[in-house]
UniProtKB/TrEMBL annotation:
It catalyses: ATP + H2O = ADP + phosphate + H(+). Belongs to the RuvB family. This is Holliday junction branch migration complex subunit RuvB. Pfam families: AAA_lid_4, RuvB_N, WHD_RuvB.
Length: 349
């Protein structure tokens, strides 16, 4: 197996994962798989800006983790030949943090703020003016003698990413010229993501094995790439070709079941089923019971479980569906016990 992309750093597993992600990141819209609608919308927006020789409108990218928000922000900069500045909501805890970034942007720069919903309120307010008029007001002095001094900014494009679009205040949301809602990828798209990644890694893997991985990636390219890495490790260590048998063995070893549920998904589901009789159970109770942040459950675990029809959200809390009882081979309230099995994907729950 050749290895054209150097990815192994024996001293830092985290860095190796990051290097792996970086190496596989598509650089252009053409390389970006899936999300056809969003790609078309972005293409038009970028082209219109180019024809008018101006900075593209501000863009909000909304959707669950790992679907390509950071990648798209990089593509917006790359396609327009613009410099990119990256920051994140948690790193902007004071208006001054944002002022420092905004005042140092060069003309046409793309400013990417990941997890923009976690930015401080005071910074949000500063951003309104910056987005609209490329201007901020800086407070000089304290108390009665404080004055506000306007500061002109270089024109820039803000690309905000959020897993929780609902948490953004309306005035901020309204200032984005375009909001892209990223959807989970279907299996055919994930096969393309995997085939592309395998090609870049020089990994000789057949279509059946790729399809087996695609079915377990929870509609998420980041997970697809991560599973491919595990499959690659397994094949390497066992001196085997990464065929469907070794894919199954590798993913079983890493606790990824045929539906793509991982350890945390299963902890959430079995807690709901066994401890709370299938619900309804509130998000925070569920989070405490499995020892995870409520935000992680809501942003990472729940959207997928809802999508594949294992849970529903009700005003009284989360409820396990009959399909969930079946998948875990448990007898639900008033249901016949079952041996468990695959659940069909429910796309529009
Ligand atoms: N459409 C795609 N085609 C090919 N690879 C993709 C695509 N989208 C994402 N990826 C891959 O998935 C990985 C994760 O993508 P990215 O970091 O852009 O996700 P994200 O939505 O920003 O996640 P988070 O919300 O956690 O920051 C990247 O390394 C990239 O290689």
């Amino acid at each position: 197996m050749s290895d054209p992309v150097a990815l192994t750093d024996p001293h830092s597993a985290g860095d190796a994962e990051l290097a792996f992600e970086g190496a596989l990141r598509p650089k252009t819209l053409d390389e970006f798989v899936g999300q056809r609608r969003v790609r078309g919308q972005l293409q038009l927006l970028l082209r219109a800006a180019e024809l008018q020789d101006r900075t593209p409108d501000h863009i909000l990218l909304a959707g669950p983790p790992g679907l390509g928000k950071t990648t798209l922000a990089m593509i917006v900069a790359y396609e327009g030949g613009r410099p990119l500045r990256m920051s994140s909501g948690p790193a902007i805890q004071h208006a001054g943090d944002l002022a420092a970034i905004l005042s140092s942007l060069v003309s046409g720069e793309v400013l990417f703020i990941d997890e923009i919903h976690r930015m401080a309120r005071s910074a949000e307010e500063m951003l309104y003016l910056a987005m609209e008029d490329f201007r901020i007001d800086i407070m000089v002095g304290k108390g009665a003698g404080a004055t506000s001094v306007p500061l002109e900014l270089a024109p820039f494009t803000l690309v905000g990413a959020t897993t929780r679009a609902g948490l953004l205040p309306n005035p901020l949301r309204d200032r984005f010229g375009f909001t892209a809602h990223l959807e989970f990828y279907d299996e055919a798209e994930l096969e393309l993501v995997l085939a592309r990644a395998a090609r870049l890694l020089g990994l000789d893997i057949d279509g059946e094995a790729v399809a087996e991985i695609a079915g377990r990636c929870r509609g998420t390219p980041r997970i697809a790439n991560r599973l491919l890495r595990r499959v690659r490790d397994y094949a390497l260590v066992h001196g085997a070709r990464p065929d469907v048998t070794s894919v199954k063995a590798a993913l079983e070893l890493y606790d990824v079941d045929p539906l793509g549920l991982d350890r945390l998904d299963r902890a959430v589901m079995t807690t709901m089923l066994e401890r709370f009789g299938g619900g309804p159970v509130g998000l925070s109770t569920l989070a405490v019971s499995v020892g995870e942040e409520a935000e992680t459950i809501e942003a990472v675990v729940e959207p997928f479980l809802v999508r594949i029809g294992l849970i529903t959200r009700t005003p009284r809390g989360r409820v396990a569906t009959p399909a969930a009882w079946r998948h875990f081979g448990l007898a639900g309230p008033g249901a016949e016990p079952s041996a468990g099995g695959a659940v069909p994907l429910v796309d529009d729950l």
